[in-house]
Amino acid sequence: MERVLTALAAGWCVAPLIGLATIYLCYHFSPNTGGSDHDIANSMMTVVITIVAVAASFIATAYLVRSHVPDSHLRTVQILDAVGTIALLTGAFFLWRSTWMYPVPQYPGFRPILDVEVRTPKEFLADHNAGGRIVVHFSDGEAQETPHRDLIRDDGDAAIYPVELEVSEHHGWSVAVLRNIDVQRGFWERYRFELPMPASPAGALPWSGWIPPVSRDSWDMATDVKLRYRWVLAPKDQQRVYEP
With a threshold of 0.90, does the pTM exceed it? Predict the structure, then answer.
């Protein structure tokens, strides 16, 4: 029984590592292209391959430890099992902790609003209309988004699209901007903007400068799309009128 439990613990430690490696290789050799059908197929194939890899690695590791590890090395495997289990549980805890949500600060008599403005070539905001080609989301929590398509304005060879985000809870400050780069084929690019705001702003914050998207994981990069932001305290008993 001791050998069986040791073998199962070894499989438990090895399988997640193989799963993570499989996911990395799948996305490395077949990255997202911005085409929704292609990306959905990639994701489904990655899930299937990962499940097979995890199951196969668990079975193979457990079999090898149970059948081929000599008794003199069993204690060493058990120590490695214990270390691996602690490492996996610690990693799982910090991963779970990274999803914790925190309410935004309370400002008596005021409601906080995160204003963002997206600057992009005019072709994506033709005739002062986002037309579904630019989509803005708060990506680090829960927020109610209010786009102002009627307030899109020119800025040289670009156009600016304002959006209000009334954030209720968050675990960071970042905004996702999706841009439809090919209407016919439904290709989208995804940009992540990380806002260097304090975790709990003490009060209103003025407009930032224009910031570029960050390079992170499968997010896209571009030099012709930028974002600026501010933290506004609007009176609760008044209807807010957006002003740049």
Answer: no
